Amino acid sequence: MVQKELATVQDKVASIIKGHLGLDISAEALKQIENFLEEFDLNSVDALELLLKIENEFDIEIDDEDLNAELLKSVKTLSNYIITKL
């Protein structure tokens, strides 16, 4: 059950990232990228806007102390964090 939920969250996160950044890449390919902050050269404004979309979509609040580059490293790290907030 947890794996299915994680896969669903990862799919949704990948879709949000693709839409926010206007990427022409498959969700599966995006999920394989180990550091999308560097891969797509995101600045802090891009990252904050993305996190706001994530918060709204999943109806969660990301704690200020959790805001760091590691959280936004990959679809997997972000999805794992989201699971803890659901």
> Main beta sheet: strand number and arrangement?
none
Whole-number count of domains: 1
Strand percent estimate: under 5%
Provide a count of the helices: 5
Query: In CATH, what is the class?
Result: Mainly Alpha
Secondary-structure class? mainly alpha
What is the mean pLDDT?
Answer: 92
Helix content percent band: 55-70%
Task: Write down the CATH topology.
Answer: Non-ribosomal Peptide Synthetase Peptidyl Carrier Protein, Chain A
Unreliable runs: none
List the helices and strands in order. HHHHH
Distance between the termini: 14 Å
Task: Tell me the radius of gyration.
Answer: 12 Å
The total strand number stands at 0
CATH superfamily: ACP-like
